[in-house]
Design a protein that fits this description.
The chain is mostly beta strands and 126 residues long. It has no helices and 13 strands. A hairpin with a 2-residue loop joins strand 10 and strand 11.
Amino acid sequence: MALIVQLHEGVAVNKCPLDQPKLRIGRNPECDIFIDDTVVSSEHAVIEKIQNPDSKGPAEYYLEDLNSTNGTFLNNTKITRRKLQHEDVIRVGWASFKFIDETKADPEKTAKIHKSWIPGVFYTKQ
């Protein structure tokens, strides 16, 4: 299964499983992911799950901008429609999300923490 994780300053604050055919993102409270921000269109973007009926392989996920005023960005590139890959970063308005494809994630891999030259500041190289 896949999910998107909402990020705030690089920290995961919310996650939403992609377990339905379409996940709507926008400022309309009826959207699956509601973003209360005036720079986000009412129906801003959609993530579509496409399962190939002939294939037993995993589903594919596509991000599509719904003619929003300020655009939808995938890895800092404005898109109209694009296939999502594991760890892609989606930006809608000021909100950022990371796409996680659990079939591609390595649960055994742990990120190494590094100390920066700034006292009390640590980081990972991912």
